[in-house]
């Protein structure tokens, strides 16, 4: 797959001679950036993929050659300027190259979540009017074929991995290998599909052309296609690369969903601007191991990934010997005291520095090495609020973890924390070039370099999302702190009031609880109610490890979740979280009074979470209405029957009788209903 | 050696099943069993059974408990020696054969109870399946240098292809004893595949699996048959699986053959229904 070096140099020279200046007049496009990188840093690594147990590397020159072969091959199938191409699969270099190939031809890629069920896939592909789909494997082909009748515009499906597809009807199916082979032949010849023709196609691209349609995850309903233009995407990526001083020496791991703005921004747009190397893991199951092998210098992880890493470390430390446990606790205590100060260059006592250096040698260094975090220069987390303890824990180890606040509509960055000014409770000042304001009703609004050009085929929704004077409404409620940082409270429409008039911000409470390793997911209720109650999902990894140590026998998730000792375990966590909430003036009334441990994990396949794993509060409240009633009517038990969707799309019924656990303490109701409170505790 | 040349070495060269001898056309009998009888002392495990396995097909052997299915597989791969009858593989007839000869000729198998090296990693277990293809002697292997290293890289490549095929990358370095049962079964299939067999014998590949694991295994078996053209003989109790997977089915009862044919024919056969449901005598 890798090129002989002389050939690569030929290409480099060819690119140098290409008429670049004329093209620059019509704005920047990713296709022209690819040519530039192949010329400037043709021999530097651009993409890596672990395949057959070995990391394989493509240089920028090779990447350009592969993308061009794909472009010419796709053109032979009939891809034209202005077409939309769906891209579906796990992070694979070839799928990113398909994005580059589409750009070369002036077509628009529309990545789709690989784990979307067939109906979601049909909706997105049909809405985008995709004429072609480049997909990873049989699984995606099967899904597309299953909904083929809803996709009249789909003319061709191009698949990367041929396995299992040999006996399929190849009328509309094409193997990517063959498409690229055809492309190479055409490139070698003159005329349409040749090198000169493709150069002209690239030169014809304008900065105002669409570079990508990103479908939102649909937290609040049907997903919408966010249109991002080339020049805005490049401008946004360039400003943030400068902000964090990212250059061609960075290495990143591409492991987040291809269709998510974060992945497209961090591993495609920024890589195409800064010219750094992107590494694709072997499979979704090997990400942790691959992360360790690559040791990225620039890293992004949603809070839940950081959370699950910490949970794993905690569990493994519990299995360590007593001396190691003691050492770990001591070193972490030192890090907690001095780590963040040292990271931010604040004055630190000499004794503290010495202790921290010892901790680095004994614990932090090896720990970061195990996690693959040794080389990290800049790390971001975003997507939802992060627990303050969790955030500080990573920073205290010397990892430059920062928060950003972003949206698909902004092409990610709205605010970002500069080095040395990362706080757990704010998301930082506006990112470079971003204008930010707070509307009268508390909603955050912005104008940014990467701002979207509208929702695809939905002008009315575009108008809804914008103010008349051209600012984008985020739908998030927030305010500026005294030093100019933005603080997000919650989704504007989720923030409510308790019956007593106190502020109720469900996400804030949920994040507080989720910091405890035993708790995976929380859904808090309380708007218009006397006090706060919640649903809890146990974290199977953590609770199973606890069960093993304590000889608790169980056969299934459901049984473990219903175990009385597990309930006691979670009760202690929630009591501790309540104590923390009680410290905060605004949040003290939001302490959790009652809770139910759910019998099943909340799952995107059942519509309970979005594909980016955010809780769909309204849907859950409706689906589990009997349980919500039980939380507030004082009953000790409640029955629930829900429909579950299996991985293969079939549906089944799951029913359970769940206990309602009462923590007491709600002044008014503790007095009025002591009997129930006691029953709940027994 | 930089990563680039390393990957070139790994990627270049012949792939899995590339050296396959395709002198035989699809549909010709690959293995024929003629009038085979097997006795243990006074117990007749198999009496006078004849059938054939054609190249490229998925052949199922079914029957109630104790019908002689596993004995039949043991006869085919030379673990048991029948007192009567003949077995021909690729046109060559034999009377007595050791399992190692069967392996060398291109017959590999998996077992009803997983028979892996529990303390060894997935990778090493599958690598063990390549032993027959290793040519370098003890001396070179000892130094792990020069020709022996080249050879190991070549074999590792094939093993990595299998790991990729069976989607077990994440457990490559995990000792198999720690893996869940369904994955162990998959590793065992991997080891059998590593021999690049012409005929693959699967003894209850789906026993003890849940629905999802079964569906995965079915897909792997079909893919092995489809992508590599490996002929498969399998014993299985899940009738749904048998009827979906196999091209032809042979039914044994008390060591005798009572039916042989396409799944639908066998399903309709009165003798088979009686054997499974029991009949009033």
Walk me through the structure.
The complex is a heterodimer of chains A (682) and B (281). Chain A is α/β, with parallel strands linked by helices and 682 residues long. In chain A, the strands form seven sheets. A five-stranded parallel sheet of chain A has the order 4-3-5-6-7, with helices on both faces. In chain A, strands 23-24-25-27-26 form a five-stranded mixed sheet, sandwiched between helices. In chain A, strands 2-1-11-10 form a four-stranded mixed sheet, with helices on both faces. In chain A, helix 4 (60-77) packs across helix 5, helix 4 (60-77) crosses helix 8 (176-188) and helix 10 packs across helix 11 (261-274). The longest helix of chain A has 22 residues, at 322-343. Chain A is globular and about 80 Å long. Mean pLDDT of chain A is 88; it is low at 1-25 and 666-682. Helices cover 39% and strands 23% of the residues of chain B. Chain B has a single domain (3-277), classed as Rossmann fold. Chain B has 281 residues and is an alpha/beta fold. The relative contact order of chain B is 0.17. The termini of chain B are far apart. The A-B interface holds A 1-2, 51-57, 163-164, 166-167, 282-283, 285-286, 289, 647-648 and B 3-4, 6-8, 10-11, 156-157, 160-161, 163-165, 167, 169-170, 172, 212, 215, 219, 222-223, 226-227.
Radius of gyration of chain B: 20 Å
Structural class of chain A: alpha/beta
Overall, the morphology of chain A is globular
Overall CATH architecture of chain B: 3-Layer(aba) Sandwich
The number of domains of chain A = 4
Under CATH, the topology of chain B can be stated as Rossmann fold
Terminal-residue CA separation of chain A: 65 Å
Residue-averaged pLDDT of chain A: 88
Topology diagram in text:
The complex is a heterodimer of chains A (682) and B (281).
Chain A: H1 5-17, H2 20-24, H3 30-40, E1 45-51, E2 54-59, H4 60-77, E3 84-88, H5 93-105, E4 108-112, H6 118-128, E5 132-135, H7 138-146, E6 156-159, E7 173-175, H8 176-188, H9 195-204, E8 210-215, E9 225-229, H10 230-243, E10 251-253, H11 261-274, E11 277-280, H12 287-294, E12 298-300, H13 303-318, H14 322-343, H15 350-371, E13 378-381, H16 388-396, E14 401-407, E15 412-416, E16 435-438, E17 443-447, E18 454-455, H17 459-465, E19 472-480, E20 486-491, E21 496-497, E22 503-504, H18 506-514, E23 519-525, E24 532-538, H19 540-549, H20 557-562, H21 564-582, E25 592-597, H22 617-623, H23 625-633, E26 637-645, E27 651-662, H24 667-672, H25 674-681
Helix pairs in contact in A: 1-3, 3-4, 3-5, 4-5, 4-8, 10-11, 14-15, 14-16
Chain B: H1 3-11, E1 29-40, E2 43-54, E3 58-62, H2 69-76, E4 84-89, E5 92-94, H3 99-105, E6 107-110, H4 122-128, H5 138-143, H6 147-165, H7 181-194, E7 199-203, H8 211-228, E8 231-235, H9 239-245, E9 248-253, E10 256-261, H10 263-268, H11 270-277
Helix pairs in contact in B: 4-7, 6-7
């Amino acid at each position: 797959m890798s090129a002989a070096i002389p050939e690569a140099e030929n290409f480099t020279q060819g690119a140098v001679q290409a008429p670049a200046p004329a093209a620059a007049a019509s704005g920047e496009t990713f296709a022209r950036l690819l040519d530039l990188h192949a010329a400037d840093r043709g021999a530097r690594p651009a993409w890596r993929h672990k395949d057959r147990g070995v990391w394989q590397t493509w240089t920028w020159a090779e990447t350009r050659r592969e993308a061009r072969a794909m472009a010419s091959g796709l053109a032979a199938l009939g891809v034209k300027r202005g077409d939309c191409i769906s891209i579906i699969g796990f992070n694979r270099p070839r799928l990113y190259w398909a994005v580059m190939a589409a750009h070369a031809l002036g077509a628009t890629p529309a990545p789709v979540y690989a784990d979307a069920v067939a109906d979601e896939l049909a909706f997105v592909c049909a809405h985008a009017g995709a004429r072609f789909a480049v997909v990873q494997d049989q699984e995606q082909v099967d899904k597309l074929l299953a909904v083929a009748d809803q996709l009249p515009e789909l003319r061709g499906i191009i698949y990367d991995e041929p396995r299992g597809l040999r006996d399929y009807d190849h009328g509309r199916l094409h193997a990517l290998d063959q498409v690229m082979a055809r492309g190479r032949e055409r490139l070698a010849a003159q005329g349409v599909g040749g090198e000169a023709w493709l150069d002209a196609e690239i030169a014809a691209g304008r900065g105002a052309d669409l570079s990508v349609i990103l479908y939102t995850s649909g937290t609040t309903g049907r997903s919408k296609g966010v249109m991002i233009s080339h020049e805005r995407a490049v401008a946004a990526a360039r400003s943030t690369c400068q902000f964090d001083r990212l250059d061609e020496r960075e290495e990143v791991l591409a492991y987040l969903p291809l269709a998510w703005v974060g992945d497209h921004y961090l591993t495609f747009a920024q890589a195409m601007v800064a010219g750094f190397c992107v590494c694709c893991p072997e499979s979704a199951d090997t990400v942790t191991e691959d992360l360790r092998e690559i040791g990225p210098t620039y890293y992004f992880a949603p809070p839940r990934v950081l959370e699950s890493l910490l949970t794993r470390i905690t569990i493994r430390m519990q299995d360590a010997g007593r001396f190691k446990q003691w050492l770990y606790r001591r070193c972490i205590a030192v890090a907690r005291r001095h780590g963040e100060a040292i990271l931010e260059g604040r004055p630190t006592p000499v004794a503290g520095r010495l202790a921290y250096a010892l901790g680095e040698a004994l614990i932090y260094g090896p720990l970061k090495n195990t996690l693959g975090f040794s080389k990290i220069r800049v790390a971001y987390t975003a997507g939802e609020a992060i627990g303050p303890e969790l955030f500080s824990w990573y920073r205290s180890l010397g990892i430059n973890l920062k928060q950003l606040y972003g949206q698909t509509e902004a092409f990610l960055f709205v605010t970002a924390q500069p080095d040395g000014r990362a706080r757990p409770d704010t998301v930082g000042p506006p990112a470079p070039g971003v204008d930010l304001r707070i509307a009268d009703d508390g909603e955050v609004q912005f104008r940014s370099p990467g701002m979207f050009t509208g929702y695809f085929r939905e002008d009315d929704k575009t108008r809804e999302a914008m103010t008349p004077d051209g600012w984008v409404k985020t739908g998030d409620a927030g305010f500026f702190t005294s030093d100019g940082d933005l603080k997000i409270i919650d989704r504007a429409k989720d923030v409510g009031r308790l019956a007593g008039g106190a502020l109720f911000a469900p996400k804030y409470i949920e994040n507080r609880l989720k910091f405890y390793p035993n708790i995976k997911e929380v859904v808090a209720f309380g708007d218009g109610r006397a006090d706060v109650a919640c649903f809890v999902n146990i974290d199977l990894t953590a609770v199973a490890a606890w069960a093993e140590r304590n000889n608790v026998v169980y056969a299934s998730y459901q049984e473990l979740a219903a175990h009385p000792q597990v309930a006691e375990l979670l009760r202690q966590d929630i009591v501790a979280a309540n104590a923390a909430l009680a410290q905060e003036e605004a949040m003290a009334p939001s302490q959790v009074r009652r809770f139910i441990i759910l019998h099943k994990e909340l799952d995107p396949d059942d519509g309970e979470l979005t594909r980016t794993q955010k809780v769909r509060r309204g849907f859950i409240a409706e689906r589990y209405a009997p349980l919500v009633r039980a939380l507030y009517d004082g009953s000790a038990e409640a029955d629930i029957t829900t429909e579950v969707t299996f991985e293969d799309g079939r549906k089944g019924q799951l029913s359970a009788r769940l206990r309602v656990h009462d923590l007491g303490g709600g002044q008014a109701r503790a007095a009025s209903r002591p009997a129930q409170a006691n029953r709940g505790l027994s | 050696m930089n990563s680039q040349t390393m990957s070139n070495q790994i990627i270049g060269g012949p792939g899995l099943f590339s050296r396959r001898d395709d002198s035989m056309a699809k549909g010709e009998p690959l293995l024929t069993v003629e009038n085979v009888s097997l006795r243990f002392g006074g117990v007749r495990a198999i009496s006078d059974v004849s059938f054939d396995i054609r190249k490229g097909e998925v052949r199922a052997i079914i029957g109630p408990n104790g019908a002689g299915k596993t004995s039949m597989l043991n006869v085919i791969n030379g673990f048991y020696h029948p007192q009567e009858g003949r077995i021909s593989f690729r046109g060559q007839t034999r009377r007595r054969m050791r399992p190692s000869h069967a392996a060398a000729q291109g017959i590999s198998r998996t077992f009803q109870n997983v028979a892996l090296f529990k303390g060894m990693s997935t990778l090493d277990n599958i690598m063990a399946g390549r032993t027959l293809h290793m040519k370098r002697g003890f001396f070179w292997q000892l130094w792990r240098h020069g020709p022996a290293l080249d050879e190991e890289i070549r074999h590792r490549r094939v093993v990595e292809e299998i790991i990729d095929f069976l989607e077990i990358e994440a457990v490559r370095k995990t000792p198999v004893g720690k893996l869940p049962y369904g994955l162990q079964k998959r590793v065992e299939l991997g080891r059998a595949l590593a021999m690049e067999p012409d005929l693959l014998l699967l003894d209850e590949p789906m026993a003890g699996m849940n629905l999802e694991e079964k569906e995965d295994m079915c897909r792997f078996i079909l893919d092995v048959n489809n992508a590599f053209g490996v002929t498969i003989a399998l014993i299985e109790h899940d009738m749904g699986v048998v009827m979906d997977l196999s091209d032809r089915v042979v039914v044994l009862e008390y060591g005798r053959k009572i039916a042989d044919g396409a799944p639908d024919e066998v399903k309709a056969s009165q003798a088979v229904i009686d054997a499974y449901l029991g009949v009033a005598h």
